[in-house]
Amino acid sequence: MTWETVIGLETHVELATRTKIFCSCTTQFGGAPNTHCCPVCTGMPGTLPVVNKKVVEFAAKTALALNCTVNRRHRFDRKNYFYPDLPKAYQVSQLYVPIGVNGRVSITTAAGEKDIRIHELHMEEDAGKLVHDPWIDQTRCDYNRCGVPLVEIVTEPDFRTAEEVVAYLEKLRSTLEYMGVSDCKMQEGSLRCDVNLSVRPAGSEELGTRTEMKNLNSFKAITRAIAYETRRQIECIEEGKRVIQETRRWDDNKDATFSMRSKESAQDYRYFPEPDIPPLELTEEFLQGLRAQQPEMAPERQTRYQRDYGLSEQDAKLITAQKALVDFFEAAVACGAQAKEVCHWMLGEMMRRLKEEAIEPKQMKLTPDNLARLIALVDAGRLNRNTAAKVFRAVFPDNGDVERYVQDHGLEQVNDTALVEQTVARVLKDNPAAVADYQGGNQKVAGFLVGQAMRQLKGKADPAGVKQAVEKALCQVHEGNI
Fold first, then answer.
1. Phi and psi (nearest 5°) for 191?
2. What angle do CA 379, 354, 397 make, to 5 degrees?
3. Residue partners of 239: CB distance under 8 A and separation at least 6
4. Using CB atoms within 10 A of its CB, is residue 52 exposed (0-12), middle (13-18) or buried (19+)?
5. Which of 4, 79, 331, 336 could crosslink 368 through cysteines, CB 3.0-4.6 Å?
6. Domain boundaries, the chain
7. Which DSSP state fits 350?
8. What positions does the domain Asn/Gln amidotransferase occupy (predicted)?
9. Cα–Cα distance between 11 and 195 in angstroms, integer?
């Protein structure tokens, strides 16, 4: 039997406000355990929450960017459950009237374009974090994250493959970064995803029993978890067993999911309206102001870069994929570097180093003006490209000064024509067999001779100029033997 996978996502996004959703505690990542919390975010008796206006603004901005209908009047609700990292024993969320509903995100995969429907977008507070210490076999609670503002974006079950899921999350991350509402650092939990998955016979309209895989925070983990859970459910059904609706945990080391608890329903959480926070009402003037603030997004920038800078469609798409890359690109161009050259270095050496060091563009220390100075040295003929690549690799980790590195290591390009010609003559004299091969019709041997000359010039000459000098010298030798 052929099976079809049906997937829906619940994506939790930490908003980039300086303070928490209902108190003035910092949202800064890290810090000593339990130092970024107060009586309000830990739910001490007698405390009252006050809604952070910036959270509402960021949530509304996100809803508009995802083509949602924004509910002008919405409210908060209490979601009641006990868990050690939730000191209140309830979470303030939005169930009955969320801030945004009925949105849409367009994605593109190898199969073509597809719209993913957004069921709702709502605001809520984050819970704390449980830290297990295997050495003493204890689990401890860190409440620093309690009260950090979230938006939860819930899709319809519109995904059929892991490729579609990753395409959606990449588009979502790009949108959020361009809007400036979240840093989307998956490694810090700023963007994490719950995957609801079921399988059904191909062609069937009836949904199967779903499981929920919690808090996946990398595209690689999401892809592997979807593959595993799909296989597990198919094998379960084909063996005559029943898939249980439950919450499962993904173990990255064991490459498998494991049961955590039965899947709760809304009734299990005993939702009721939050009594300490009155309903919120957004004016049309407020929403119009947010619409006017919407920045130029990736597709529009891609079109502009192709038109104004002459970038290829593929290069423009890669540069605009992440806001950090766009910011770096535009800053380097503003420093006077040619756009195509900046693009060349970013998509070549820079991406190579980012991959080698396993860091994101926003984490690198190299500055746009430093890259622009390196490009200027190449344009001025003071460095050839091969040497410039070595300089780039040397200064990349700590943003070392380009000019100082070139000066300290004596890397400026040799532009002495007489020296180049003398070196080439010496190379030809030292390699008579290669010269004879060239005279015998083996044109490729010229490349060997160019390499020998570049080696003697310590790589500091212009390769094109050396090649021209070698070809000229070989021609003279050939003519002298006629």
1. -135, 115
2. 70
3. none
4. buried
5. 331
6. 3-286, 296-408, 417-480
7. I
8. 327-474
9. 9
Residue labelled with tokens 């010269």? 435
Taking domain 417-480, whether its CATH number is 1.10.10.410 is answered by yes
Would you tell me how many other CB atoms lie within 10 Å of the CB of residue 281? 11
Residue entry with tokens 């830990």: 42
> Residue 255: phi, psi to the nearest 5?
55, 45
Of 77, 89, 95, 63, the closest CA to residue 181 belongs to: 63
Pull the structure tokens for residue 391: 């300089």
DSSP 6-58: EEEEEEEEE---SB-SSSS-B--S--STT-S--TTTTT-TT------HHHHHH
* CA-wise closest residue to 143 among 305, 8, 34, 1: 34
Q: Which pair of tokens denotes residue 148?
A: 């950090």
- In angstroms and rounded to an integer, the radius of gyration of the C-alpha atoms of the chain is 30
* Whole-number pLDDT of residue 136: 83
What Å distances lie between residue 250 and 83, 243, 253, CA to CA? 19, 17, 9
Q: How many helices (H) and strands (E) does the chain have?
A: 16, 16
**pLDDT tens for residues 70-94?**
999 999 999 998 888 899 999 999 9
Q: Which residue positions in the chain have pLDDT lower than 50?
A: 481-482
Shortest CA distance to 56 belongs to which of 144, 148, 151? 151
Encode burial over 343-363: b for 16+ CB neighbours within 10 A, e otherwise: bebbbebbeebbeeeeeebee
The answer to whether the Cα torsion of 402, 385, 330, 321 is positive or negative is negative
Q: Torsions phi, psi of 367, nearest 5?
A: -105, 155
- pLDDT 10s digits, 139-155: 899 999 999 999 999 99
- Residues above pLDDT 90, as percent of the chain: 69
pLDDT score of 466: 64
Provide the angle, in degrees to the nearest 10, between the axes of the packed helices 323-334 and 368-379: 50
| Residue showing tokens 């949530």 | 59
Using the 8-state DSSP alphabet, how is residue 274 labeled?
A: -
What's the chain's length in residues? 482
Identity of the residue numbered 86: L
